[in-house]
Structures are given as structure tokens and as C-alpha cells.
Amino acid sequence: MRVEPVPLGPVFRSRAKEEKARAADKAPVTDSKQPRDPQAPKGRPTPKRSEAQTRRRSVANTPMTRKEAAKRQRDERRAHMERQRQALASGDERYLPARDKGPVRRFARDFVDSRLNIAEFFLPMAVVILVLSIIQKPEVQSIALLLWLVVIVMIVLDSIATAFRLKKRLNERFPDQNKRGAVAYALMRSLQMRRLRLPKPQVKRGERP
Questions:
Q1: Residue whose C-alpha is closest to residue 162's, from 128, 126, 209
Q2: Each residue's pLDDT tens digit in the chain (209 positions)?
Q3: Which of 34, 50, 113, 123 could form a disulfide with 201 if both were Cys (CB 3.0 to 4.6 A apart)?
Q4: pTM listed for this prediction
């Protein structure tokens, strides 16, 4: 009885193909067709998608011309001035000008605003004295001159007393902080009428700061 030989070649080839197919399925798939970022320099690897997006955003946000840059600076300056204007009205420390910032300057303002200062009536009295001096009568002009001297002396004495008291209170309240210019700052504020002061007064008259 003759036994016919069984061909084994196709069987082995089919198994080899199946193993290769399984290995190909398990291998990580890389996107070789990923478009190259035009901003990536030649000879260097293409940056990651997040880096590329961040770079494109920064390029898009950067002004392309001097005109656009100048317009942006004007807008920022206008917004900053608006914030300062609101802060001067509300007393918000975050946006106040540098000369008005800090607890020392805040205390100096409150000290002046809590008192009745003779210097704040300087402008109204100066107008009255100016009107009297215009009248062409010797006795009226003499009264105007006398009033002018009295006002000046009273303002000087009141300013000296205010400076002495404020300096003492500042040394007690802020012994370790820089108080340079705070007294002069307060005296300049005392020369302004209360309703015209900026930042706006935050304390009432007679209220202890």
C-alpha cells in the first residue's frame, strides 16, 4: 500500500503570515504622515502639538506693526488711568498712584481729614481779600491787607501744630517704617478744600484715625 506524501510548505507559510500579522497589530502605530510644522527649523525634530499651538498663539498675540503696538499701549494706559481715577474716588489701595500708597500715607490723609484745618479755607479767603483789594478806597484796602496778614499767620501756626502732632503720631504708629515726606504730603493736602481732595476722605471730621 503506497502512502502519498502530505505537502507541508503551505501550512508553515500560512502560520508564519499569521504570526507576522499579529506582531504588526501589536506594534505601536506611528503617524508618519504627520505634517511638518513650518515654523520648525530644518534638521530639527517637529515640536509637539501643544508647543506648536502655544507658539502660534504667541505669534498671533504679538502686534505685527508699530501702529498696533502704539494702539495697545494707549489702550493699556487709558485703562490704567481709569483704574487710578476710580481708586482715587474709592480709596482702593491697589490702584492708587505711588505717592498715595502705603499705610503711612493713608494715616497722614486720615489725620488731616479728621481735623478742621485753617489752611483749607485759604482759597475762599484769598478770593474775598482780592475782591476787597480791588475797591478803590484806602480804608477797605487797609482792611484787606490786614486780613491777608492775619490769614497767613494763622495758616503758618496751624500748619506747624499739624506737622508736630502728625510727626508724633507717625512715630508712635509706624516706628520701623519709612515716613519720609509724609508730613509734607499731609500739609499739602490740608491746603485743599475737603471736597476737592484726592483720594477722597475716608474719615469724618472729629473721627480718630
A1: 209
A2: 554 554 544 444 455 555 655 655 554 444 444 455 555 455 555 555 666 566 666 555 555 688 888 888 888 888 878 887 887 777 777 888 889 999 999 999 999 999 999 999 998 999 999 998 898 888 988 999 999 999 999 999 999 999 999 999 999 999 999 999 999 999 999 999 999 999 999 999 988 88
A3: 113
A4: 0.63
Report the largest interatomic distance among the alpha carbons of the chain, rounded to a whole angstrom.
162
Assign residue 43 a region (left: φ > 0; alpha: ψ between -120 and 50; beta: otherwise).
Answer: left
The set of cell numbers assigned to 38 is: 513650518
Domain coordinates in residue numbering, the chain: 116-193
